[in-house]
Every structure is written in structure tokens, then in C-alpha cells.
Amino acid sequence: MAVSTFIRCTHFRRLIGLSNNAVTFFSDTSQRLLQNRVVTRSYTTPIEEIKDIDEINSDTKKMEKKISKAMLMYLQRAKEHDQFMKKEIAEYEIGKRYLANMMGEDPEYFTQTDIDKAIEYLFPSGLYDPKARPIMQHPETIFPNRKEAEFDETGRPFHSMFYTSKPNYYEALYNIVDKIKSLNDIEDSFIRQGNLHKDQINLINSTWLLNHEIEKQILEPISDSEYNYFITSLQRLCDHPLSKHATDLIMKYRKILTIDSDQMIIPPLEYDNTGRPYIKVANCMRKTARGEVTIWGKGSGNIIINGHDITYFEEFHNREQIIFPLIFTNMADKVDIEATIKGGGPTGQSGAIRWGIAWGLRSFLDKPTIERMRVAGLLTRDWRIRERKKFGQKGARRKFTWKKR
Q: Rounded to an integer, what distance in angstroms lies between the CA atom of residue 326 and that of residue 315?
């Protein structure tokens, strides 16, 4: 065991280049440490590096100076808006929890529908206009969205139509014109091939967005004339023979109407002894006029009112009121009308007969046409009546002339 240990130590000394003498081992190591002295290093920054740092700082200052005033104002307004929205959202969440606790519900599963029902229960209101009633909604739905920065830090605008003051509006108009041109190219190619066919979009059950709805969508205010021009341009696109290819662009500015005609109970047609179909509509009312309308199928367009023809009404606009439902549904020469009316004046009587004709024509028409009538307002009864005179006044709203002396 001792021999093997001695051999290992000897081998180790040979590897490190030392003699067998321990004294010489320590002396050699001390000499090597003295020869390899540690060189001290200065940690002060050289002048060249200081110059480089100054140049970098000056460049950053120049970059800060390049930011335009418009960008600084935008960043400031954006910061204020974000702080305002955070505050409003926090208050909304607190109010939502309080409201859920008042109604005995779990705040975590208290939806917007539950909030609306709770507000309607706790704050009953008889105001007719929904906008005048108390509401509680998320701040993001109440406060309009803000437009993002339209220019970079140097003030250069991103949008090519920035200097029109309404870039989103004019970009939408440009897209409409561009789509019309592309449809014209497709139409020309079909004509050259001799395979032209109409493929127009079906706009039933939808209507154009209103002015304020388009403003929310494009995030820009537009005037009434600009709105009318915009809708006219879209209508021109819809009238194109191949407008169905632009469905995505058109429906972007239309809203779908709820189909209520499917829920209507339409009475079936009745038949007389000769097998002629007819439908009778009672309780035709408008103002103080009351009447009854009978529509006969397999007719030729005869209109009889209290034993007279349509000349029963002297004014042309009253005659137009009666004819309008027949022209709208292309039934002017297919049915006969018999009406008995009493009370009221010419306007009330013609309005009552018009509603009775439109209401009775449902039994002769298909569902798409009935829906078109509903959208046009032909199936809506007009409940307006003359407002009564008030005591102490000259009329319903008019006051007596006030005299100081």
C-alpha cells in the first residue's frame, strides 16, 4: 500500500515538473508567483469613449426634437383618454357588483341583459324615447372609439388622403368607385363572351345605415349632404347588373332588419258561391275615420268607395294613398276593391282605406313581398290623432298672445 502511494506522488511531481524535494516544490511555486505579477488596471473611462457617449446623447436629443407638436398633443390626449377610460371601467365594475348584490345575483355571472332588466326594475320610466331612459352599459359601448395616430413622429401622415380632412370617408368613396370599375370590366368580358346575365344583390330585409351609424363606423363626422352623396354612390353600385359580386362592400353599410312577417297570422282566402276569392278587413281606422275594406280576387282594378269610384276623393294625394299599395305589390289590375268608410275627413278616410287594402293583400301575396310591404311601412297602423285643445290656451299647443300692459 505504501509503495503504490509513493509511485502516485512521484508521478504527480513529474507531471507538474517538480523535484521530489518538498522544499524545492514550494520555492519553485513562490518564484513563479513572483514572476507572474498581477498587473493593476485603471478603470477610468478614456476620453475617446466619453466623446462617443456625448455623440449618442446628442443624437437622442435630436430625435426627441424631431417629434412634431401634433404627435406630442396626440400622445397627451391618448394618455388622458386611457386614464379616463380606466376610471370609467373601474366605476362600471363597482356599480355592476353593487347592482348584482342588490338583485341577489352572482356578480361574476351578471350579464348586460341582467343589468338592463335590473335598471328597468329599479328605475321604472314612462319616457317614450329609449335614449331618455336610464341605462348602465360598459364605457366602451357608450364613449366613441378614438382614431389612432394618422402620422408618424415627424408629422408625416400615413394615409394618402390625410389632407382631405376626412380620409376614411373619401377612402370609402374611392373603394365604391373602384368596385364599380371592376364590375364594368367583368361585364365587358361577359359581353365579349356573349354570356351576359344579371346578378344583382337582394336588398330585402335590410336598410342603409343612418348618418350617426356611419360616423361611428368611419370615426369621422359627416354632414347631411355628404351622407346623401355616400348613399347615392352605394345605390349606384347596387343598381349595377353584377352588384352581387360587391356584396361584402354593400352590406358593410347596411343593417339587417328583423323578419316579423313570419310571425304574422295571415287569414286564408274565402270564396263566394261562384268560387271567386275574397278577403274582408274590418276595423280600418285612421284618426276618427272608421271603415271596412273587401278585396276581391280575379279582378280588373275597379275601386268602389261608398258606392262611388275613386273620384270620391277630390284631392289627388288622397287617391294616391289608396292606389299606392296596389302599385307597390303589382296587384293594381288583378283585384277589385270595395270600401265603406265614415267619419273623419278625406285624409283620415284615405289613410284608413290604404291600411285596409295593404292588410288584406297579404292573403294574395308571398312572404318576400309581404316583408317588402312591412319594410315600406304599409302594414303599420297610424295611431296618431288630433291633439285636444288645452284649457287656458288658444289650441293644443298655441298660447294666447301675451301682453305686458
A: 19
Residue 335 and residue 364 in contact, taking contact as beta carbons nearer than 8 Å: yes
For 314-327, what is the mean pLDDT?
94
Residue 85 CA to chain centroid, in angstroms?
Answer: 21
How far is Cα 49 from Cα 8, in angstroms, rounded to an integer?
Answer: 55
- In this prediction, residue 154 carries a pLDDT of 62
pLDDT band at 153 (very low <50, low <70, confident <90, very high): low
In degrees, rounded to 5, the angle at the alpha carbon of residue 11 between the alpha carbons of residues 8 and 13 is 110
- Cβ 82 vs Cβ 123: under 8 Å: no
**Distance of alpha carbon 345 from the chain centroid:** 43
Give the model confidence (pLDDT) of 260-298 as tens digits: 656 678 899 999 999 999 999 999 999 999 999 999 999
Comparing C-alpha atoms, which of 138, 144, 136, 137 is closest to residue 81? 144
Phi, psi (deg, nearest 5) at residue 270: -105, 160
Which three cell numbers, joined as nine digits, stand for 4?
A: 503504490
* Nearest-angstrom CA–CA distance, 332 and 2: 130
Grid cell at residue 104 = 341577489
Residue 280 near residue 294, CB atoms below 8 Å? yes
**Distance in angstroms (rounded) separating the CA atoms of residues 200 and 179:** 14
Q: Is the pLDDT of residue 54 over 60?
A: no
Give the predicted TM-score (pTM) of the model. 0.46
318's CB contacts (< 8 A; 6+ apart) are 346, 347, 349, 350
